[in-house]
Amino acid sequence: MNSHTLADRLALAVEQGRVPGLHAVVAVRRGQVILEHYDQGEDFKLNEPLGHMRFTPDTLHDIRSVTKSVVGLLYGIALADGRVPEPHEPLLRHFPEYPDLAEDPRRAALTVEHALTMTLGLEWNEDVPYTSAANSEVAMELAPDRFRYVLGQRVVDEPGVRWSYCGGASALVARLIEKGTGSALADYARARLFEPLGITRFEWSTGEDGVAMAASGLRLTPRDLLAIGRLVLDGGGGVVPPSWLATALRPHVRIDEGFHYGYQWYVGDTWTAGFGNGGQRIYVAPALDLAVAITAGQYDQPGQPTAAVVLDEVILAGIER
Are residues 74 and 60 in the same domain? Predict the structure, then answer.
């Protein structure tokens, strides 16, 4: 395998129209860049059109729900600092501003880990487009108090039993970080994660209330997105405690066959990943010493196959096992 082979495989996939909306891909194996590609196309900053873009190594790009995975790393850093509660601790104990919600014994049973693993058992629906207020994440952003909105949702399952995709869970995790550190989420991320990794440019979108959008608001360059993947591949890189990664990246709850969820990260049999709407990806395969970052523009489209084609048919099929 060599980088030209992978570049040729990707060029063929582009020519055949199998990777529509691909904006960028950067992959590193055994410490060496094996593929780096930048394209062009229509892009958005959340729901704000940016027009036709020519993407470069320096272009900031929405990473959408990969933001959640970054928040999961930040929680581990804050925990090592003694700033946030242990995962087993009751969640509502750390939201004393909602005493009425804590009176419900079903909500009182919620733990921090239930938020980290998206097993809160609360009613939540993100199956509709993120342009609609019927989407629970959008409704959370429109609510006068996003945290009460999340914690006040109807209880539909026993906590800890069933994974249910929930951007509100990530918002709660991020709020615990802000409460414990006394810093805005973006400021804590800059000081404790981004600057140690050499990441100097990023944006973190906020809601109308000024609160960072912990579920989807981060924008990074492709190379800096890859830096997050390399940190995970390197066991924390001296930035995130290895003990946290060992816990966060193990399967905690089953999503499907061979597909699980950890602490804000997806976990497969041989890989871990962050997924974002439109085809955003961090993919880490330790046995292959491989980290991949992908950005794409298939926002709200059904299937969104581009990232999977790049990973499975271009990179994984093209490297030595």
Answer: no
321 pLDDT exceeds 50? no
Q: What is the spatial distance between Cα 2 and Cα 273, in angstroms, rounded to a whole number?
A: 24
Q: Pairing mode, if any, of strands 61-62 and 272-276?
A: unpaired
**Residue 178 corresponds to which tokens in the numbers above?**
């802000």
**Residues in CB range of 280: below 8 A, 6 or more apart:** 61, 62, 63, 64, 65, 66, 225, 274, 294, 295, 296, 307
Helix orientation angle between 222-233 and 66-80, rounded to the nearest 10 degrees: 50
For residue 184, is it within any domain? Answer: no
Residue type, 285: A
Same domain, 118 and 29: no
| pLDDT tens, residue by residue, 190-226 | 999 999 999 999 999 999 899 999 999 999 999 999 9
The pTM of the full predicted model, rounded to 2 decimals, is 0.97
Q: How far apart are the first and last CA of the chain?
A: 10
Q: Which residue has the tokens 């995130």?
A: 240
Same domain, 88 and 145: yes
Is there a contact between 219 and 61 (Cβ–Cβ < 8 Å)? yes
CB 120 within 8 A of CB 166: yes
Number of domains in the chain: 2
Domain residues for 143?
A: 69-178
Q: Which residues contact 175 (CB under 8 A, 6 or more apart)?
A: 95, 147, 214
The token pair that represents 195 in the structure block? 């600057």
- Indicate whether 44 belongs to any domain: yes
Q: CA 2 to CA 10: how far, in whole Å?
A: 13
Is 189 a member of any domain?
no
Q: Are residues 37 and 88 in the same domain?
A: no
Residue appearing with tokens 């239930």: 114
Q: Is residue 23 part of a domain?
A: yes
Q: Is residue 97 domain-shared with residue 50, that is, in the same domain? A: no
Residues 34, 79, single domain; the answer is no
Cα(47)–Cα(55) distance, integer angstroms = 19
